[in-house]
Design a protein that fits this description.
Strand content of chain A: 5-15%
Helix content of chain A: 25-40%
Helix content of chain B: 25-40%
Radius of gyration of chain A: 21 Å
Radius of gyration of chain B: 23 Å
Distance between the termini of chain B: 46 Å
Oligomer: heterodimer
CATH architecture of one domain in chain B: Orthogonal Bundle
Order of helices and strands of chain B: HHHEE
Structural class of chain A: alpha/beta
Strand order of the largest sheet of chain A: 1-3-2-4-6-5-10-11-9-7-8
CATH superfamily of one domain in chain A: Amidase signature (AS) domain
Number of helices of chain A: 15
Number of helices of chain B: 3
Structural class of chain B: mainly alpha
Largest sheet of chain B: 2 strands, antiparallel
Strand content of chain B: under 5%
CATH topology of one domain in chain A: Amidase signature (AS) enzymes
Shape of chain A: globular
Strand order of the largest sheet of chain B: 1-2
Number of strands of chain A: 11
Number of strands of chain B: 2
CATH topology of one domain in chain B: Histone, subunit A
Chain lengths: 487, 97
């Protein structure tokens, strides 16, 4: 077995036992990137080999000098390209920020560096995190490692593809409406969207501030828990971070789920759900039942209104957040402007791609005079109803389980010219962001056509430990094949 | 309620975006398709329901009014497309004549 094939749990054990060094692991990962990256385009930027290996050697030295090096010390990590990295280009998959180099680190990145993680590069994404397929990247679409004719999902498709292909064992993504969980499901890896406020958004380039949350991508549940523990917690630089202390997220509880109540919402198994996804998810529910969990049928009555409410709220917030791109302080500046107003207008029109313009337009429309009540306010009221659906569910169950997406990975080009069908592929993930609760996607096997299927586990705010417990028990009991796809 | 080309032009003006004639026509059709999806919300009874706006109950986070660390001007201006001394340079705001 090559080092790049190892999951986080195996890496942690191997590094602590001195079976291999961070330098050896990192070299293996960098060789893997060199070999498979031409077929995948999972990265926008990979740092220079020399500087990466120097950091790996520093981690080895700190481990050799004793003390407690921490779970992430010397572990290679990739970072989505909308999370600011000091001195390292952060493009958001956009021409607008093609040459932007942040002068500061996002809090999540600073915490990763502090933990001794080795940042290898920045992953490809849908422009400004707007998309469900990675086809909206200005730097070319990322491919799904399981079938390079298919999308990896989005918008954290680069992070998911990189982890799935063994280019890196861990990655950060961001999840505004499913942008970590959906690509994790499509690529057969673990993706976590934490409780809103768990992780600082300082340095995460803003898309929809009331929904955005940095999340994790890994091959195993243990990797997700370790990565989240490292980046979570209150931050004076983001006043929306939660004051709640971050508990130990993953106790080794084996596979026993006695005393855990799991709800299966009818609405997630209705029309539009692909048969092979339904089958795999139902099998997973049976496995969870066999581990001692009590399984109940529940209801999330407003599920079908989630997509409309989500896109209204997200686009409205995006139209305000993206007003900052004016060609003045950073980002693309048009060469064709004659005065200040045309500078704004031309820079934005040249710098943004089609989907970003579409969202800004829809959001501007929804907030404009005469439509605010009809669209924006109505969507925020429906958001309350959806949040209440989950509050009610969590009165009787600890976790809600459902498919992550209605289908497996779709073909490149299949939906990119049909925004409504693209938006509807987010139907099972957006309610979580609207309600602010945490959720995770864990692989639950391959469909008949050999594509990964994701099982989504949703819990109440700040109850990540029970989410990880159910996920890890399932992961162990199901014995999901963790071998990498053929590339 | 359908939007027309003129509505799209007005929104583009507000959003500081410019579209070609072709883009305007295509976007009008597209926007109507998406608005039809949004209009599904009209069927939801939201009488007496508060809008969400925020998902955590936390509000008004205060800190002492003390200056923190700041970026040195050279770093803050490093990404500027056009710089003049310690300022961002832009085309004339008012006409020259």
């Amino acid at each position: 077995m090559k080092l790049y094939e190892l999951t986080f749990s195996q890496i942690r054990a191997g590094l602590s036992a001195g079976e291999f060094s961070s330098r050896e692991l990192t070299e293996s990962v960098l060789d893997r990137i060199e070999r498979v990256e031409p077929a995948l385009s999972a990265f926008v930027t990979v740092r220079g080999r020399g500087e990466i290996l120097a950091e790996a050697e520093r981690a080895d030295a700190s481990r050799a000098s004793g003390g407690n090096p921490g779970a992430l010390c010397g572990v290679p990590v990739a970072v989505k390209d909308n999370i600011s990295t000091r001195g390292l280009a952060t493009t958001c998959g956009s021409r607008m920020l093609e040459s932007y180099v942040p002068p500061y680190d996002a809090t999540a990145v600073a915490r990763l560096r502090g933990a001794g993680a080795v940042i290898v590069g920045k992953t490809n994404m849908d422009e400004f995190a707007m998309g469900s397929s990675n086809e909206n990247s200005a730097f070319g679409a990322t491919r799904n490692p399981w079938d390079t004719g298919r999308v990896p999902g989005g918008s954290s498709g680069g992070s998911a593809a990189a982890v799935a292909a063994g280019e890196v064992p861990l990655a950060l993504g961001s999840d505004t409406g499913g942008s970590v969980r959906q690509p994790a499901g499509f690529c057969g890896v673990v993706g976590v969207k934490p409780t809103y406020g768990r992780v600082s958004r300082y340095g995460l380039v803003a898309f929809a501030s009331s929904l955005d949350q940095i999340g994790t991508v890994s091959r195993d549940v243990a990797g997700a828990a370790a990565l989240l523990e490292a980046i979570a917690g209150e931050d004076p630089r983001d006043s929306t971070t939660a004051a709640e202390p971050v508990p130990s997220l993953l106790a080794d509880t084996g596979t026993d789920l006695t005393g855990v109540a799991v709800g299966v919402p009818d609405e997630y198994f209705a029309d539009g759900l692909d048969g092979s996804v339904a089958e795999k998810v139902s099998d997973a529910v049976e496995t969870i039942r066999s581990l001692g969990a009590k399984v109940l049928t529940i209801s999330i009555p407003h599920l079908r209104f989630g997509v409309a409410a989500y896109y209204l709220v997200a686009d409205a917030e995006a139209s305000a957040n993206l007003a900052r791109y004016d060609g003045v302080r950073y980002g693309h500046r048009s060469d064709h402007a004659e005065d200040l107003e045309s500078l704004y207008r031309m820079s934005r029109s040249e710098g943004f791609g089609a989907e970003v313009k579409r969202r800004i337009m829809l959001g501007t429309y929804a907030l404009s005079a005469g439509y605010y009540d009809q669209y924006y306010l109505k969507a925020q009221r429906v958001r309350t109803l959806l949040a209440r659906d989950f509050e009610r569910a969590f009165e009787s169950v600890d976790a809600v389980v459902a498919p992550t997406s209605p289908t497996t990975a779709f073909a490149l080009g299949e939906r990119v010219h049909d925004p409504v069908s693209m938006y509807l592929s987010d139907v099972y993930t957006v309610p979580v962001n609207l309600a602010g609760i945490p959720a995770l996607s864990v692989p639950c096997g391959l469909s008949a056509s050999g594509l990964p299927v994701g099982l989504q586990i949703m819990v109440d705010k700040f109850r990540e430990p029970v989410m990880f417990r159910v996920a890890q028990a399932y992961e162990r009991a199901a014995g999901v094949d963790s071998s990498l796809p053929e590339l | 309620m359908a939007v027309e080309r003129g509505d799209v032009e007005h929104v583009a003006m507000l959003a500081m975006l410019a579209f070609t004639e072709e883009e305007l026509v295509a976007f009008t059709t597209e926007m109507n398709g998406i608005l039809a999806l949004f209009e599904e919300l009209e069927g939801v009874d939201t009488d007496g329901v508060e809008p969400a706006f925020r998902v955590l109950r936390r509000r008004n986070v205060f800190r002492g009014d003390e200056p923190g660390e700041m970026l040195p001007p050279d770093e803050a201006l490093a990404n500027a497309p056009d710089r003049h001394e310690d300022a961002f340079r832009v085309p004339a705001v008012l006409p020259n004549d």
